[in-house]
Design goal:
The complex is a heterodimer of chains A (184) and B (193). In chain A, 78% of the residues lie in helices and 0% in strands. Chain A is mainly α and 184 residues long. In chain A, α1 runs parallel beside α3 and α2 packs across α3. Chain B has 193 residues and is mainly α. Chain B contains nine helices and no strands. The chains are: A mainly alpha (184), B mainly alpha (193).
Chain lengths: 184, 193
């Protein structure tokens, strides 16, 4: 018993010097909190160090910690929000936002695809639509946007070249606007 | 090695944040003298400095739910201590002189400073006596114990570094520092009863 207590005090001495990882001694902090002998040793070791470092310095009086402790007992218990639940909540929000973005993109892609199908044939639009959906499912929103834009622009350029010949002017105002924007 | 000290603080802070008030007592016991001396650099009056130190710990306790551990606990509480001391100085500068003070204000001031009547001059005298006892006990230690504990406390050397300086195993350093503290602690206990 005596040796065990001495062993714990020695560990406290090491803990104070940051020469002991408390995680290797998980019960050490529990005993420090709950047993007066160890609290006193902890307080005295710190006091000794402080006096050695600054001999003439003002010290907290012997009852200082007891007074603070009494005041803390009268305080409402502090409880911090749990870090884990906050992290989960944030992650959840991000996931919902990503899914919402992907869903919006799919919807836009479907509308564009449908519009293209109406104007110029089924094959090109349906292949683009399926590619967009696959990409959106894999949540790579940015690459989907770029791919859709590139394919759409390619399509518009081809369409621009052939539209006059075919006598269709359905997308022409938009084609001119896009081409003009790219040249600038 | 300093990281392990911070890790213990971190764990104690987490315990307080989970509602364990006793864990805060351990932090107070660890930092009380450092905080008092820090504040005493700003506020020369010893009784006032002790009041402000007390106030600092209470403010820290109340603010702990917002402490996220982005800085070490001791730097965080040092900031609180400095701000509390500076605010106290600013408030004191704005306070009317004692001649003009009315009863209501006087009562508020008594409450704000808090527990002043508990800070007796005997408390300050005892602190001086404690320091004297510790210093004398240190001087009386055998050389190897005094050297080991001084290298640790004064020079801040790690156990490995002390072992190099004293040319002995780390286990011996650990034991010498502990024995030095125990010997001084015995004298302290005799004084404190």
């Amino acid at each position: 018993m005596m040796d065990e207590h001495k062993g714990i005090r020695q560990k406290l001495s090491m803990l104070l010097d940051a020469e002991l990882d408390w995680r290797d001694n998980p019960r050490l902090l529990d005993r420090l909190e709950s047993e007066e002998e160890f609290r006193a040793a902890w307080a005295h070791y710190h006091l000794i160090g402080q006096v050695i470092r600054s001999p003439g310095g003002l010290l907290a009086d012997a009852d200082f910690a007891a007074r603070v402790s009494a005041m803390i007992r009268d305080e409402p218990t502090v409880l911090a929000p749990r870090q884990e639940s906050r992290a989960v909540e944030t992650a959840g929000r991000h996931k919902v936002a990503t899914l919402a973005m992907a869903a919006s993109l799919v919807a836009v892609a479907v509308l564009i695809g449908k519009s293209l199908t109406d104007h110029s044939g089924d094959f090109y639009a349906s292949s683009m639509q399926s590619q967009v959906i696959v990409a959106a499912d894999s949540k790579s929103v940015e690459s989907v946007e770029k791919m859709a834009e590139a394919q759409f622009n390619d399509y518009l350029l081809v369409h621009n070249e052939s539209a006059y010949l075919a006598g269709s002017a359905g997308m022409l105002p938009y084609v001119r606007l896009v081409s003009s924007g790219q040249d600038r | 090695m300093g990281g392990q000290g911070d890790q213990a603080d971190e764990e104690l802070v987490k315990r307080v944040q989970r509602g364990d008030k006793k864990a805060f007592d351990i932090l107070v016991l660890k930092y009380q003298h450092k905080i008092v001396q820090l504040i005493n650099r700003y506020i020369r009056d010893q009784t006032e400095a002790l009041d402000i130190a007390q106030d600092t710990f209470i403010k820290a306790y109340r603010a702990l739910p917002t402490f996220r551990g982005e800085s070490a606990f001791y730097t965080w509480i040092y900031r609180i201590a400095i701000n509390t001391a500076k605010n106290h100085i600013a408030t004191r500068a704005r306070r009317p002189s004692d001649d003009d003070i009315d009863i209501e204000t006087a009562e508020q001031f008594e409450t704000a400073v808090g527990l002043r009547d508990q800070e007796t001059p005997e408390g300050v005298l005892l602190s001086e006596e404690l320091a004297h006892v510790i210093q004398r006990a240190l001087d009386e230690l055998p050389d190897e114990l005094r050297t080991a504990v001084s290298l640790r406390e004064l020079d801040g050397l790690s156990y490995d570094e002390i072992a190099d300086v004293m040319n002995c195993p780390v286990g011996t350093v650990r034991s010498r520092i502990f024995r030095a503290r125990e010997a001084i602690d015995k004298k302290l206990q005799a004084l404190l009863g």
